[in-house]
Amino acid sequence: MKKQNPILKLLFGIIILVVAVLYMYPIIMIIFNSLKVETAISTNTVFELPRSDTFNGLNNFISAITRQGFLQSFFYSAFITVTSLIAILVCCSMCAYFITRIRSKVSSLLYYLFVFSMVVPFQMVMFTLSQTADMLNLNTPYNIFIIYLGFGAGLAVFMFAGFMKSVPVEVEEAAMIDGCNPLQTFFLIVFPILKPTIVSVGILEAMWLWNDYLLPTLVLDIKKYRTIPMLIQYFRGSYGKVEMGPMMASIVLTVLPIIVIYVFAQKYIIKGMTSGAVKG
Questions:
Q1: 278, pLDDT greater than 90
Q2: Which residue among 18, 45, 244, 259 has its CA within the 20 to 30 Å range from the CA of 154?
Q3: Within 10 Å of residue 263's Cβ, how many Cβ atoms?
Q4: H/E element holding 191?
Q5: CA 208 to chain centre
Q6: Residue 205: which of 141, 269, 254 has the closest Cα?
Q7: Distance between CA atoms of residues 3 and 153, nearest Å
Q8: What are phi and psi of 55, to 5 degrees?
Q9: pLDDT of 41-71, one tens digit each?
């Protein structure tokens, strides 16, 4: 292989650095403004670093947590994310197991329907979805996971099926010879083998579930239930005024958990997405 030109390598590194800074700039600005007083955010000093006269410490974070029902909204978002994630991982892995092990026209059609669902725009079904959710009483944080299961199944089944094809059937046959029924074979033998894909699918779906704004806004009763993204949209202070400081702090508190999880688990995402493509 030819030796890389050091000038081109340096130029490429500078371009990547500039792109990274542009992507990180909005997040950095939100963090800086979450530490400022209200007047500093609403004036021309919004793009400046906090100074001694504009620094507000953690007051914005305390205000965001103690007011506007932040903790209740945090609970709703966490509950929806956890329940929906469990339903997606369990149901979609079982569905992918059926599709890859039962070779028939029905299973093939089912697989292509899941793949097709990934390319259908949400805007095409959102109004019908809202009416259907009201008819079936799926408009609370405690049963909205059924709707999320339907929308998250496309990607999950696609990734699980891709990995499942690389799992040798002989392992399952040995388990059945030892007396395991199909459910025992799946949960005791196959499910642990799916760990790389489970982790990658779980992280990708959790990021979507936690940050989703449109679907809960369409389905849930805004006056009764507000997830974290919905709370930020309707963040109001006294006399209906939007308080930018606490709003910026609430945004930081919202994105921080999912960023931390993604940073520490990104290697599992890559591993899980490529594991099914390099085997068999």
A1: no
A2: 259
A3: 9
A4: helix 191-193
A5: 3
A6: 269
A7: 46
A8: -75, 130
A9: 776 666 777 877 778 878 888 888 887 788 8
CB 254 within 8 A of CB 232: yes
Total count of residues recorded for the chain:
280
Q: Which two tokens stand for residue 155?
A: 């990607």
Give 117's contacts (C-beta < 8 A, 6+ positions apart).
151, 153, 154
Three-state secondary structure call for residue 55: strand
Q: Is the pLDDT of residue 74 over 80?
A: yes
DSSP state of 4: P
Cβ neighbourhood burial of 198 (10 Å; 0-12, 13-18, 19+): buried
CA dist., res. 176 & res. 172, Å (int): 6
Alpha-carbon distance values, 85 to 140, 143, 249 (Å): 16, 13, 27
Residue with tokens 């599992």: 268
Where exactly are the structural domains of the chain?
6-61, 69-243+256-275
The CATH number of the structural domain formed by 69-243+256-275 is 1.10.3720.10
pLDDT given for residue 236 in this prediction: 62
36: which strand partners?
55
What percent of the residues of the chain are helix, what percent strand, and what percent coil, each to the nearest 5?
Answer: 75, 0, 25
Report the amino acid identity of residue 262: Y
pLDDT category of residue 88 using cuts at 50, 70 and 90? very high
